[in-house]
Every structure is written in structure tokens, then in C-alpha cells.
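Hi P.,

Sorry for the delay on this. The queue was packed all week, but I finally got your sequence through. Input first:
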Amino acid sequence: MPEIDAIPRPVVGFADDFPGGHVIPRHRHLRGQLIHASTGVMTVTTGEGIWVVPPQRAVWVPGKIRHEIRMSGRVVMETLYLSDRALHGLPLDCRVVAISPLLEQLIRRIVAMPRPYPKGGAEERLVGVALDEIRTMEVAAFHLPRPSDPRLRRVTEALFENPADERGLGEWAALAAASPRTLARLFQRETGMSFGTWRRQLRLQRALECLAGGESVTAIALALGYDSTSAFISMFRRHLGRTPGSYFEDEGRDSRPG
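Then the structure:
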């Protein structure tokens, strides 16, 4: 949307509505983006990693980073585009962040504003408060790094295709053409995670996508390789603080401005 960069304001808001399964192909913007979904789950993919964005979270994508967005379930997307002069104190890499109730309401107000909004009025003051809130956002653990080493990529691409695969590093060694010790060292160096932690993060991301798409907890547990539904529920609650069945309970409202 090249017209965004031509709008003479530090922050520009847009809202849109997408059906489940919709994919926005890989693209980039000159402005940084704070992308929030009040309904549904977004999966953002770049060359460096994958970020799953459930409700009450947003993903920060710096300007000029090529990214793809895939929707799980109906997604009501609200995006703030920040110009260079609004970027002070913001990270230079992608990350999922927690959205406070105040920031969620500010985003909703900004995407409903005229473009450009009037200078010197309430709209400009609201944008200033939003920028203060954005600079204090806390990082949320919904990132799955993508390794660059070709030996690791053979393992991770196979797991993307089948997250239920239970093989350990010893069994992956032949496919990767590397020893288990080398694979373990590479996982830690390239992703900052152990192999087990990386695979669990992949399963959590896939579980969130499937839940947003309306799949049952039992079906998801079986598809992800868990021996029982209770084992999957226990893992999910331990890492996300809620059971999978209750995770989207607060999402029922349609918060699209208008």
C-alpha cells in the first residue's frame, strides 16, 4: 500500500477482515508495522523465523522486512504503520508482544481515525499516548526461529511437515548428515533453544492455529503426537497459562471499528 507512506503523519491505522485460510503473500512496507488481531490467529513468516500471534498479542515488523501472513480462523486485523520519526526506542527485529487493554483500545481508536487525522487535536494526543504504550510492550514467547544451517533445515522442514514426529536427535542424524552432538550444538547456536524446546514451541504454534480454526482439542492432541488429550492439555496449560479449551473464551466480540 504505497499510499500509506505518503500520508503525512507519524502513525497511520488500517483495519481489515480476512477469512480463515487467507494468505497475504510475502511483501514489505517502508514503515514499521504493529499488527494486531482482535479475532483469530495470524502466523507471520520471514526468512528468520515464524511468529504466531493470538488475540491479546501483536507482532512488531520493522520496515523493509519481507513477510507473509497466514490467517487461522476469521481474523479481524488492526495495523498501525509507524514512520521513521516514530520508531525511537522500538526494536530492529520482529517479535510478538503483549498488548495491554489500554493499547488495544488506542489501536481501535486510531484505525477508525480519518487519514490523515487533524493536527493539534485529540487524535494527535491519542497517537502520542499510543506511542508511549508501544515503547513499553513486553515480548511474548511466540517466536520460532528458522535456522540457516542446511543440516538443521533438513530437520526443521521435516518437522514443519509433521510436528508429531517423535524422533530424537540420534535418529535425525542420518537425515542431517551430522552427529547428534553437532545437531544439539547447532540448535542452541542458531535458535537459542534446545531441540526439545524448539519442537515443543512448534507444536504450541500449530496448536494455536488449529484451535483458531475450530478443531477439537482431542483431534489436535492426536495430530501433534501426544499419547493422550490430558498430556497435551497439561503441556499447553503449563506454557500458556490456560487450557486449550479456554484459551479463546474472551475472543467472542467483534471489535472492528465502525
